[in-house]
Amino acid sequence: MKVDILTIFPDFFRGPLDFGIVRRAREVGLVDVEIHDLRAFAHDRHRTVDDRPFGGGEGMVLKPEPIFECLEALKVRSWEDRIAGGTEQSVVLLSAQGKRFDQAAAKELAGLQRIVLICGRYEGVDERVGEYLADRELSIGDYVLSGGELGAAVILDAMTRLIPGALGNEASSQQESFTAQVDFQAADGPTSTCASGGLLDYPHYTRPADFRGMTVPEVLVSGNHEDIRRWRRRTALEKTVRNRPDLLQQIVLSDEDKELLAQIRGKDI
Ligand code: SAM
Questions:
Q1: SS3 letters for 168-214?
Q2: 60, 62, 94, 137: which to mutate for ligand 1, most atoms within 8 A of CB?
Q3: Which residue ranges have their beta carbon within 6 Å of ligand 1?
Q4: Which residues of the chain form CATH 1.10.1270.20?
Q5: Per-residue pLDDT tens over the stretch 72-102
């Protein structure tokens, strides 16, 4: 996958690209990330990329010309072509006003061949970029950041780890928080002790079993795989009820889940 990031702060990405899974994925050629400095596409002496907003008001707005010219130089497919579907490319504008980025969007992007991430700054980006260049606007959460760079790094990370081969153990991405439906009836249903099935992940513990008197739940050292599976499902449900009850509306609950939920709610979690 090729990822192009358009920014006025190219150095920002030195850190996020150089650690862990993203770094490894780049090294083995699963993802090729190129950072483009928008100032290189500004033609005046001061390399101006922003201007005052029409109609007055606070702050500055990123101008359309450098962004359009950068994309033209990159030979990204036209908006119409991408919108028409059947294309493996997407141009994403990072925006607080965008659709909320989530695990499903990360999975969709991870299946594409080319992604362009446009990072806004100041009061935002000239609206024509969102209208005529980008095929989607994504927000990483309901808060306002100073720029799109952190959002681009978040999207890049979440998406890269879903590219087949990026994780050492492919099964791990199937078992994490938010990972979509598990078909409980299917032969290959949640055979693992820990398929999340759209819930938040269950709690994890490692050695030592007794750390300053804080001990790991006994069931995890019991060696009884069925008890461990049930405990993990129960604690994943407990965390989801406590922290993200909205997720329960979006998933198919097994009969066992319903029984565990009744016990949990009986406990008044
Ligand atoms: N005036 C804009 C508003 O109120 O929605 C905020 C502009 S913000 C200060 C500057 C840039 O940061 C935006 O153009 C966008 O690229 C990025 N940004 C801010 N919040 C974001 C979020 N929650 N998700 C993704 N990008 C964000």
A1: CCCHHHHCCCCCCCCCCCCCCCCCCCCCCCCCCCCCCCCCCCEECCE
A2: 94
A3: 94-97, 119-121, 123-125, 139-141, 143-148, 151
A4: 174-265
A5: 999 988 888 887 776 799 999 999 999 999 9
Task: Specify whether the CB–CB gap between 159 and 95 falls below 8 A.
Answer: no
The CATH class for the domain spanning 2-160 reads: alpha beta
Does the domain at residues 174-265 carry the CATH identifier 1.20.200.10?
no
Task: Report yes or no: 248 and 256 within 8 Å, Cβ to Cβ.
Answer: no
Question: CA-to-CA distance for 72 and 57, rounded, in angstroms?
Answer: 31
Confirm if 266 and 231 have CB atoms less than 8 A apart.
no
Contacts of 74 (CB under 8 A, 6+ apart): 4, 36, 116
139-196 residue pLDDT tens: 999 999 999 999 999 999 999 999 999 997 766 666 678 875 544 444 444 433 345 6
pTM of the predicted protein model: 0.90
